Every structure is written in C-alpha cells, then in structure tokens.
Amino acid sequence: MRLSLSGTNFAIFAALMLNNEAYAFAPISSKTSSARISTRVAQSSITANGDVAGVDSTIASPKAWECDEDANCVQVDACDEEQCRTTLDVRIHGEWYDLSGWRKAHPAGSHWIDWYDGRDATEVMDGFHSEKARKMFSRLPKSDPKTVAQLEADVVPDSDIQIAFRELRDQLEADGWWERDMAHEAKLLGIWFSLFGGAIATAHTLPAVSIVLTGLAMTNAGWLGHDYIHGVDKFSDRMRMFAATAAGLGPTWWSDKHNKHHALTNEMGVDEDVATDPFLFPWAPDPKHDSPLRKIQHWIFFIPFSFLFALWRVDTMQVIVQAVEEKRPKAKEELYALLAHYFIMLSVLPFQVWVPAVFMSGLMSAIIVTPTHQSEEMFAEYQPDFVTAQFESTRNAVTTNPFSEWLWGGMQYQLEHHLFPSMPRSKYPLLRPILQKFAEENNVPGGYRESGEFEILKMNWDLYKRVAESDPVPGAPYSRGHGQLGAINLGLSPAAGGVGAFNNQS
C-alpha cells in the first residue's frame, strides 16, 4: 500500500495530527515494529494548500531534537529535508529514547542509530561503549509516551536470557573484569617487537625465515590491534592506531565492518564477515549470484584465504580516504599512521619478503577467524535476542599447545569476545567456565559450543564441501551487502529512507 496525501486533505491531516500532539508516530505496517511514519509538516505546508475550517494558522511548527556529541539535546523546529527525522526510538535497558537528534552527532555514524530504530539496543550499547558513553544516553530525550505504548505492544520483550546476561555483566563490571593486565600487554607487545626485529635482521640473509617472521608479526599485530580497537580503557585509546601502524589495517574500516559483524552476527545479507563469495560460499546461493568456483571451493579455499590481508589493506585505504573527505573523527591521524606503516615496511623489508608475508598472514588469519562462525546457525531475519544469537552463531576452538594459544590471538574464545567485545582478551580463559555455567543454568539453546582447533577446521571444510555439492537455491539471500553499510543503505533496514517519510512507503 502506498500512502499519498495532497491538497486540502493533507492540510486537514496535518492539523489534526498537530492538535493531538501525535505528529511523530503512526503505524503503517504489521510486518515490523519499526515501520512507522512521522509527519514533518511546516506551517507553510498547511496554508499553501488552502484554508481549513477550525484550524489556527498560527499553530506551532512540529518539533524535533538536535544533540551535540555530549548528548546535550534541545528542541528545534522540525526540518523538511528528505532524511530529516522527527522520531527514532530505541530501547536501552527497558527505557525508550528518541534518538532522532542524536543520530547525526553519534561519533561512529548515524547508520548504527538507524538500524536499531524500533528495536532494543541494550547489549550493543553496553558492549561497544565506554562507561562515560554509557552514562551519556540517560541525558537523551525519552520517547513520547504514546509512541512507547505502541512500541511495547509490538516489539519483542526482553528474554529471560537477556535479563540474566545483564545481571552477569553488571557483576563482572563490579568485579573489575575490564581492568587491563599491563604485564600481559607488555609480554604480547614484546613478542611482536621481537618478531618484527627478527624479520628485519634476517631479511637479506635468510629471506625465507624473514617471510615467516613477518607473517607472524602481521597476524599478531592484527590481533593486538583488534583488542585495542574494541577496548574502552585509556590504554586502548592510546593504542588505537597500533593496527594502522603495525598491520596496515585502519580502525575506521575495522569498526564500520567488524562492529556490524558483532552486532548482527551471521545475519545473512548483513554480516559481511561471514560473506566470502564469490570464491567461498557458506550456503547455496541464488543462481544469479552463483559462481563456477563454488563447485571446487573446498579444494581451493586456501587461495582466497591467502588474499584476506591484502583485501583488508585495500579496503582500509578506500575507507580512510572517504573518512578524511567526510571529516570523520581522527581520520587524518589514521591516514598518517597508515602511510607511516608503508614507509617503514618498504624501508626495512625487501619487496620479495614483505609481499609473500602479507599472503601468509592472510592465510593464517582466515583459518583462525572463519570456522568459529560459518559452521554455526545462519539467520535469515533480524534476531531480537542478542545473547541467544551469539551462543547459536559462535563456536570456540580448544587449542592444544602454547603456540596455538598465542597464534589464535584470543579468537579461540570467540563467544567470550562476542558477548564482551570490549573486555581485554587476557580475561577470556577465566571467563570460559562462567559462560559455561550461564548457558547451563539459563537453558541457552545449543549451550556453550566448542571443538578442538583441528576439529573446527574440519567442520569448516565439510561445510564448504557440502555447499559445493549442493544445487543453487532460487531466492537464497545474497550474502554481501554491497559495501560495509550496504545492508542499511540498500533499504533492507526497517529504518531505511528516514522514519516517517510519506513518499516511497509501501
């Protein structure tokens, strides 16, 4: 159904909505709780369509919120731009907030706010933000009571598992689990410096050894940078550019792409961290997205795996150039760090060492990160219970020796990391029995999943083989979102196009 309002009818509709102070909310679809419309009617819109009996021509214009980066918000006249929003309601810890004014001030971008319109964002808010940022949201304006009543009647309530998880998180925070072990950090950084120093020392005398050491250093730098970019403590803030300088991987690119993976894990067509086609398909595709390579993907998997780091580096440079043009926070600082990385690498390592090391590091990293998700549940729809979805879509790897424990870089504790992404990775081994007990006590579907490090690799290979032997499936979800934010920008988000836009709603 397409909504169409014009002429006097539009003026009457606008006046009635304004008089009832309900101009920010009206249901248009029973398919999704966040399919809502909000009028953005200026006074000129009413008078331009003729006189309306009983309507005061001096009636106040609709209001919207405008916020700064510290979440200080004031009411302003609602604009009439296509992307302007007069309502955008998100639930955090049981309270609905109107984030229409905060979305543009959000440091990580407005797309995150848009995606959770009409949804609960408690776990994402807690998982990705510092204590200071988490206190800021309480200053944001509350949603209109009428809007809240309709949302609560339509939106999936918090599950018992979610409520229990929040209690667990509060207890862990009170017990200091986010305090970083600086001795452990010094040890990990010392290993990286030793690898990089060894690579430089052997670059011209033992190039094969230098390639191995450089590859290990790159992989290690990636895991360290991954921990620091996720981190919310002061040390992580100071080390945020480590991934850019040591591994050539940008925090902006990583945050945009990887945080979406954390928030919407294994959601088909949304989570691009599990989208490895057209070289590797995690499920049988639609014929129009199929590739002849799929039939042999289980035999050639190591080739696309090897290109992982190279592709990440290309994506990093594309994103940071755009970020600088858009004047995103610290974009120039990140660009300088990336340029410093390439200057250092090309100055101290021969091309014939540096390039093979990139592909070696890509192979190692892909072998580690891919099997912990691809062999588990894939979701065709949005999952409102974040906690249960993480248990169902994640499998840990049990390492067998100290070298593997170091090489996996904390990714063997994938579930711990997904539930608590900002927690220092050194805490994950101790967190493992706590989550095992949590899964058992709360009857989490599938429980706590883990397999041996080689068994989990075999499971991933079996998946590729099974999909290779399958026929294409017409209508199967497309695994890639056409770019990091594509699943939102292409209109797959319930908030796409601006909440309340009259045109193009159906």
Automatic annotation (TrEMBL):
Endpoints of the signal sequence: 1-24
Domain (Cytochrome b5 heme-binding): residue spans on this chain: 90-152
Gene3D superfamilies membership: Cytochrome b5-like heme/steroid binding domain
One GO MF term attached to the UniProt entry: oxidoreductase activity, acting on paired donors, with oxidation of a pair of donors resulting in the reduction of molecular oxygen to two molecules of water
Top-rank taxon, per record: Eukaryota
Transmembrane segments: 296-314, 335-355
InterPro entries cross-referenced by the UniProt entry: Cyt_B5-like_heme/steroid-bd, Cyt_B5-like_heme/steroid_sf, FA_desaturase_dom, Fatty_acid_desaturase
GO biological process: long-chain fatty acid biosynthetic process; unsaturated fatty acid biosynthetic process
Organism for this UniProt entry: Chaetoceros tenuissimus
Keyword field contains Hydrolase: no
Name listed for the protein in its UniProt record: Cytochrome b5 heme-binding domain-containing protein
Keywords: Membrane, Signal, Transmembrane, Transmembrane helix
GO cellular component term, pick one: membrane
